[in-house]
């Protein structure tokens, strides 16, 4: 496929998002950046959104239909494969973009080493509340949105770089994706954006943050904020991220970091605070424990493929362990904050 310089391919992956699609897609069509194309990938929806997409696609967007729910990673890769743009923008189906979103993202790509740009993601229902402004990282492979739950008073607007963007609303340079590879479909959903961003960092790509590129997000509308299934995917994929991208010295001690994180999660379960406390409150502590057992059983079963990918990442890396550790120190989150912050 012939790529078009300057063109931005906006990809929206949909799964049962009938209630949100019209507003999401209209926000893309209303962008002030004119050199764009819109591609929607439907992941086997059963709520009527597929029929709505078929009816509204002609002349408005390119529709790719998948027969089953293949997960966010495979859905995004399907869109990227069909895209013609020099840049790839991802937008969640439950998010609405400000009219200047794309223009502000593109403004951060003047340096050729910038392979990723992060948006300022605010809550849809309270647009003065931060959802994410890029991501922070915990040394066992887990991550959390920077500023999550804080009032937006411009505290993040002076910063220009972040570790990696959130896949809810991110811009990727096609050259970076060609160099690093696409989303890892083994992850299905959650953690796949962290995996991609960290692989890009090992290859020497940078990530800018565009505070004026605002998106308003209905957080966790797909599975629910305190969904046991989400907890399962997050913890399993956390394990895979750690094994894929952490250098050996850190990987060997990462179980200690995980135990320390579990200590704080135990505290939040007892106090009914944080994400773990929320799952225990809305379901039960037993359901959370079962999610953990499932996560490690599935995680260890998938290790052969993860080990092969790890060898390739470290064979091709361009930065040193010391440089990677510097990035972790710059963008680290503590176990306490990770556990307590809701």
Outline the fold blueprint.
Blueprint: E1 4-14, H1 21-29, E2 36-43, H2 49-56, E3 62-66, H3 72-82, E4 85-91, E5 95-97, H4 101-106, E6 114-123, E7 130-132, E8 135-137, E9 143-145, E10 169-173, H5 174-180, H6 192-202, E11 206-217, H7 228-245, H8 248-271, H9 274-282, H10 285-301, H11 303-315, H12 321-330, H13 335-340
Helix pairs in contact: 6-7, 7-10, 7-11, 8-9, 9-10
Properties at a glance:
11 strands, globular, alpha/beta, 9-stranded mixed β-sheet, 2 domains, Spore Coat Polysaccharide Biosynthesis Protein SpsA, Chain A, two-stranded antiparallel ribbon, 342 residues
Describe the structure.
The chain is of the alpha/beta class. It has 2 domains: about 5-215, Spore Coat Polysaccharide Biosynthesis Protein SpsA, Chain A (Alpha-Beta Complex); about 230-340, no CATH class. Helix content is about 45%, strand content about 20%. Strands 1, 2, 3, 4, 5, 6, 7, 10 and 11 form a 9-stranded mixed sheet that branches. Helix 2 links the parallel strand 2 and strand 3 (about 60-65). Helix 6 (about 190-200) runs parallel beside helix 7, helix 7 runs parallel beside helix 10 (about 285-300) and helix 9 (about 275-280) packs across helix 10. The model has no long low-confidence stretch (mean pLDDT about 95).
Total strands: 11
| CATH domain topology of the largest domain | Spore Coat Polysaccharide Biosynthesis Protein SpsA, Chain A
Averaged pLDDT: 94
CATH class of the largest domain: Alpha Beta
Tell me about the largest β-sheet.
9 strands, mixed
Strand content: 15-25%
Number of domains: 2
Radius of gyration: 19 Å
Low-confidence stretches are none
Please identify, by name, the CATH architecture of the largest domain. Alpha-Beta Complex
What's the helical proportion of residues?
40-55%
